[in-house]
Write a structure and sequence with these properties.
- Helices cover 43% and strands 11% of the residues.
- With 106 residues, the protein is of the alpha/beta class.
- The protein has a 3-stranded parallel β-sheet.
- It is elongated, with a radius of gyration of 16 Å.
- The protein starts with a strand and ends in a 22-residue tail after the last helix.
């Protein structure tokens, strides 16, 4: 319910036909209307080419397509930090070091 991003790790996506493109297009629009960004990682060149040819890339946004899941997650964390006006500490973040985390009691 509070999700701001959905990451699709697309390493296993080998093709994108017209109906798949249409579904992704509508999904991107619907999520956007609800304040959620769809982010992709690991897409094969042929999928990216199709997204560009069909203008799907314009709806997804090139800034939301990344080579690796770690790069996509870092992009997501940067967006969260910008919205929060400060660092977002999460043990799932690539490069997170527990020794840098200090718990603050209320």
């Amino acid at each position: 319910p509070n999700a701001k991003f959905i990451l699709v790790v697309g390493d296993g996506i080998n093709q994108l036909d017209a109906s798949g493109e249409e579904v992704v297009h509508h999904l991107v629009l619907r999520l956007h209307d609800n304040g959620v960004q769809l982010v992709f990682s690991g897409l094969k060149r042929q999928i990216i080419d199709i997204m560009k040819r069909t203008n799907l890339m314009e709806y997804v946004g090139a800034q939301n397509v990344h080579a690796t899941a770690d790069q996509a997650l870092e992009h997501i964390y940067q967006q969260l930090e910008a919205a929060a006006d400060g660092e977002v500490l999460c043990p799932l973040r690539p490069g997170f070091k527990m020794e840098n985390y200090q718990r603050v009691e209320d």
